[in-house]
Design brief:
216 residues, mainly beta, Histone H3 K4-specific methyltransferase SET7/9 N-terminal domain, elongated, cilium, MORN, flagellum, meiosis, repeat
Length: 216
């Protein structure tokens, strides 16, 4: 069902309201038969998108309310979260920053609601990766992350005015050679990086970006 404007060819054009066969509804602007301009799309499952469209795709600025109570407000490109936006997760965590292909990608800040801690730094395909700062209530960690875990040189900065320098080292998995390898043996879980302290100092200006400047 559709009620609204049409052009001389009979295509939906201008403002209109549509009831789709799958139970979804759309109310907003059309251009030559396609959703283009500003509109609100209500999904049968309870999700709602209100924002810009271009040729039937979410494109421009828009807010998406998901059925689980989470919400994204920001930039869209061809139906994907892309550009800059803020995501409020169902558990109360928030991410504010850059997106590409529906994933956290670029610079962004993730706040953990339960602990109040926040990660401020680089993301690659939804994973914490690159120079970053992990800020807790009375101290923070400055270093680099790889695949969501801290790795390499870094420092803990304490509010009392001192720093603990060191590095996160990836422990090596040791396999037991005595026993026969079983066919259905599960792969070992990756071990957590271990923090190795090198020195305690007063506050210093070192940051993970400094190493990039030294690299040839």
């Amino acid at each position: 069902e559709y009620e609204g404007g049409r052009n001389s060819e009979g295509q939906r054009h201008g403002f209109g309201k549509a009831q789709l066969p799958n139970g979804d509804t759309y109310e907003g602007e059309y251009d030559c038969g396609l959703r283009s301009g500003h509109g609100t799309y209500r999904f049968k499952n309870g999700a709602i998108y209100t924002g810009d469209y271009l040729q039937n795709k979410k494109h421009g600025k828009g807010v998406f309310f998901y059925p689980d109570g989470s919400k994204y407000a920001g930039d869209w490109v061809h139906d994907q979260r892309q550009g800059y936006g803020e995501y409020l997760y169902a558990n109360g965590d928030t991410y504010t920053g850059e997106w590409a292909n529906n994933k956290r990608h670029g610079q962004g800040t993730y706040v953990y609601k339960d602990t109040g801690s926040k990660y401020v730094g680089c993301w690659v395909n939804g994973i914490q990766d690159g120079p970053a700062e992990l800020i807790h209530l009375n101290h923070r960690f400055k270093g680099r992350f790889l695949n969501g875990k801290p790795l390499g040189r870094g420092k803990f900065i304490f509010d009392i005015g001192c720093e603990q320098h060191g590095e996160y080292i990836q422990p090596v998995q040791v396999r037991e050679t005595e026993k026969e390898e079983e066919e259905d043996e599960e792969p070992p879980l990756p071990l957590e990086p271990i923090w190795k302290v090198s020195e305690i100092t007063k506050l210093t200006p070192w940051s993970p970006h400094d190493e990039e400047l030294l690299d040839p």
